C-alpha cells in the first residue's frame, strides 16, 4: 500500500473513532439518548445522515457496477429512488416526527407501531422486531461484503481480513457513541462521498477528452449505452415490467427503519423542509456522479485495454489509476464511508429493536437505563458477528443482497407506516396482518421454487411490488372487517392532525 493512501485512511479511521468518543461524552446516559440522540439532530445532520445511511457501498460500488455492465438502462433505479426519497421527506418525515412523540415518545419503529395501535399483547412489536432482525442482518452483511471486496481489490489483503477491519471500526464507534456517533459520522461520511462522486467522474471525463468526447467514445463501443430503454449488456429492450421493477425501488423508502429513524430524531419538525432540500440536493448530485463513474469508467477501461475482474470495483480501479496515492486514499475512504455509514445505522436499529422491543418488553421490564444501554451495546456486537459470518459467502453481489433486504422492509413496513400516519381507522389486526403478508410475499417471491419459462419470479418483477400491493390490500380489507379503533387512539391521531395543520 502506498504511504499516502495509508496516511489518508489512517486519518479517516482516527476521525471516526474520535467522533464516537465525543458522542459517548454527549449522549449515552439513557436509552433514549443512546438510540435516538435525544431528538436533537440539526437539519443538516438529519439530511446527510439519512442519505449516507441510505446510499451505502452500493452507491459507490453497486450503482457504478450496474451502469458499467448495463448502461443507462440501470438509471431507472436512480429515478425511482429520487422520487421515492422526495415523497418520503414530503409525506412521511414531518408527520412521523410528530406522531412518534405523541405516541408515548416512541424511539423505535416497533415501539411506534405498538403505541400507535395500543397493542397490549405486544404481538405487533414482536413481529416487527423479527422483520428488523432478519432483514437487517442480511442488509448489514451486504455492507461487510463491500468492505471485504474493497480491501481485497485495493490493498491485496485477504477478503476475510477486509471483513474484520470494516466491521471492527464500525462496531467500535457505534458501541461507544450510539445514535449520536452514528449520525455525526454519517454527516462527515456523507460529505466525503459527495466530494468523491463529483471528483472521480470529472477526472475520468477529462482523461477521455471531455464530456462530448466521452459520450462519442461510449457510443462507438455500444450505441445503446445511453439508451434508457435498452439493456446494453445484451442489447435487449427493457420490458414494461422491468422498468416498473427498477422504478419500484422508490417504494422501499417508506419502510426503511435506518432512514426514517433520522426523521424521528430531528430537533424540530419545522426544520424538516430545510433537511429535505439539503438531503435531496445531496442525493441527486451523488447519484449522477455514481452513474457517470460507471458509464465513463467502462469507456476508460475499454480504451486503455485494462483488465477489471469485478465491475463493482470500477470506482476503486479509477481511484488507484488516475489519482495521487494521497488523494486515492481519500477516495477509498469515501467507499469506506459509504459502507460504514450504513452498517452502523443498521447495527444500531437492530440493536435498539433487540433492546427496547425484546429485552425490555419481554425479558426484563424493570431494567435500569444503565442495563438497557449495556444490552444495546452487546447487541451491536452480536449482530455484527452474525453479519460477518454471513458475509463469508462472497459470491453474492452487493446489489442483490441490498435489493432483497430493501424489498423486505419496503413491503413489510412501508404501507403500514404510510396508512397509519394518515388514516385513523386503520386497525391493529390490519397492521399485523399486512406486515406478515407483505414480508411473506417477498420471501416467497425470492425463494419459492416457482418459475415462468425457466426464469424465477424476481427476474420478471422486483419482489417489493407484489409485497407492497399485498400489504396495502390486506390493510384496507382487514380494517373494514374489524372494529374501528378506540376513542383514545382516534384522539391521538386527531392531535397529530391538529399539530400538522398548525405547522
TrEMBL record:
Principal cellular location given in the protein's record: membrane
TM regions (residue ranges): 6-24, 75-92, 126-151, 163-184, 191-215, 235-254, 282-301, 321-343, 372-392, 398-421, 428-448, 460-478
Residue stretches in coiled coil: none
Subcellular localization, as worded in the UniProt entry: Cell inner membrane; Cell membrane
Protein family according to the UniProt entry: Belongs to the sodium:solute symporter (SSF) (TC 2.A.21) family.
Function, as annotated: Catalyzes the sodium-dependent uptake of extracellular L-proline.
Identification of the protein by name: Sodium/proline symporter
The organism of origin for this protein: Fluctibacter corallii
